[in-house]
Amino acid sequence: MKVLLSIKPEYVRKIFAGTKKYEYRKSIFTKHVDKVVVYATKPMGMIVGEFSVEEVLVEEPEILWKETHEVSGISKDFFDQYFEGRQKGYALKVSSPQLYDEPIDPFKLFTSFIPPQSFKYIDTETEEKNFNFGF
């Protein structure tokens, strides 16, 4: 299954440059997800690529940081602010990032597109036929 994730452009660049190997989340999927489709938030506002999820780490934030910080692509301060007050955090291990040749305007794919706050499952059978995602 695939999900659509909203990610800030500065982190999108690091993912596709290969310097950010983990994408952190406060909540995680309930279904098995093997691919993430990346929506770069405003000012880009486009679907720009995808990556495979090699594994999902679930740990207390301090342990998560110790295991992933060298290839996190973020600062310790940002990490601490993001997970403040959380007992558990999630890290998606990024594998095989693929930047699309041309970004995709999500408003052309979805009749009423709203960027996901955390994630949106993509029903590939239905949406590939209707919108020709090409992935």
Automatic annotation (TrEMBL):
Pfam families: ASCH (PF04266)
Coiled-coil annotated spans: none
Domain ASCH: 5-98
SMART domains xref list: ASCH
Gene3D superfamilies: Hypothetical protein
Signal peptide segment: none
Name of this protein: ASCH domain-containing protein
UniProt organism field: Bacteroides intestinalis
Origin organism lineage: Bacteria, Pseudomonadati, Bacteroidota, Bacteroidia, Bacteroidales
